[in-house]
Amino acid sequence: MSKNKNGRPAKPRPDFPLFPHATGRWAKKIRGKFHYFGKVTTDPKGQAALAKWLDQKDDLLAGRVPRPKVEGVTIRNLCNAFLSRKKDLLDSGELNAHTFQDAYGTCQRIGQYFGWDRLIVDVVADDFDGLRRQLAKQWGPARLAVEVGRIHSLFRYALDAGLIVQAVRFGPHFRGPSRRIMRLERAKKGPRMFEAVELRAILDAAKQPLKAMVLLAANCGFGNSDLAHLPTKALDLKRGWVDFPRGKTGIGRRCPLWPETVAAVRQALDQRPTPSKPVHRPLAFIMPNGEPWAEVTHEHIGEGRVEVRRRDAIGKAFDALIRNLKLHRAGLGLYAIRHTFETIGGDSRDQVAVDAIMGHTRDDMASVYRERIDESRLLAVVNHVRQWLFGETKQE
Q1: Which class for 172: exposed (0-12), middle (13-18), buried (19 or more C-beta within 10 A)?
Q2: Cα 125 from Cα 120, distance rounded (Å)
């Protein structure tokens, strides 16, 4: 293949619509974004690349994701189209990086099991039965149920997006484990919550800021992500309230704070390290190195691929603490304190108020019409949990 004066591969002819990119692929910049059409080394004259460009040209120039021909849609085509849409949602902030990584992992498993060039129309019920058997050997019932749900969503997308004209037939057995199996599995692991004596031992042993975070979890049912992303402006320590929407659903949450929680949070804020970046300054809790305690980030690494990185230092610190206290058991982490709040808070017999503090919503007309909940009801719930934990009630 001929090369230009810089020693790089040259176009086959001056009017060739593609150019050899520095990454070694035939490329074209369209609407401010690079698109690639195969490796130069395996297609030195660009014939295959040109054919691909001509096939996708109309869609790309119009800003659309190129759609493969309906009669020849492969698993690769489906996964590329599905992840392209998910990536758009990720870029616009409508999807978090954690969820994108889960979708990417599902696509990888589907491609590896069925084969990337397998036509979707050729995948039948027996294939899905085999896939389920393989997944069931690797994972427990809970994770199996989630993965089966993701696979159903992936193939439903093929129909909804017009990649296929007839719904995929999964067969009668490609579904999550039965409720009975799920109940037995949960019973085998034991309750996913802490007892009052265990929580008191954890609080006695915890150092700041972990102690403040454990108290917020017990007081308001906060999870790891809630604690890592809690902004100081959400805290009204003078009145003893926190007002912080649930990140997963965007549902508003207001929670009265115990005196113990207020005192611990004040102490943690007094000892708060300097954030390493301006973007982290609003956070209430910062690690000694200036970074957030938990974070999910992503980076585009080309050809629609996204590398997702997760860090949960809160979970690791809590896990180390309960192991040291001999309280660790399978499935028990800081998030189990959220289960504890839901369980004990429910004994207050005001589930509506518990849901409001937890950030839960119900698909019923009462939830649609309900505009607010009186603060006294929220106070009654957290007082009930405090009574259970410490054996005394907050005086107002």
Answers
A1: exposed
A2: 12
CB-CB contact of 290 with 274 (8 Å):
yes
Please count the other Cβ atoms lying within 10 Å of the Cβ belonging to residue 333: 17
| Crossing angle of the two packed helices 141-160 and 125-138, in degrees rounded to 10 | 150
Using DSSP's 3-state secondary structure scheme, residue 230 falls into coil
Q: Residues spanned by CATH 1.10.443.10 within the chain?
A: 196-390
Nearest to 224 by CA among 288, 317, 323: 317
- CATH architecture for segment(s) 70-189: Orthogonal Bundle (1.10)
Q: Give 390: exposed, middle or buried? Use CB within 10 Å, 0-12, 13-18, 19+.
A: middle
pLDDT in tens, 278-306: 999 999 999 999 999 987 766 665 555 66
Distance CA 121, CA 119 (A): 5
pLDDT tens figures, 80-133: 899 888 888 888 878 877 788 889 899 999 999 998 988 998 899 999 999 999
pLDDT score for 395: 40
Mean pLDDT across the chain: 87
Token pair listed for 40: 């130069």
How many CB atoms within 10 Å of residue 264? 24
Give the list of residues 6+ apart from residue 107 with CB closer than 8 angstroms, or none: 79, 82, 83, 154
Question: How many other CB atoms sit within 10 Å of the CB of residue 201?
Answer: 17
Q: Which CATH superfamily is domain 196-390 in?
A: Intergrase catalytic core (1.10.443.10)
d(CA 67, CA 88): 16
Residue 394 pLDDT level (bands cut at 50, 70, 90):
very low
User: Whole-angstrom Cα distance, residue 104 to residue 307?
Assistant: 10
CA atoms within a 13 Å half-sphere pointing along the CA-CB vector of 264: 22
**Which residues of the chain does CATH 1.10.150.130 include?**
70-189
Give the integer Cα–Cα distance in Å for 22 and 170.
Answer: 44
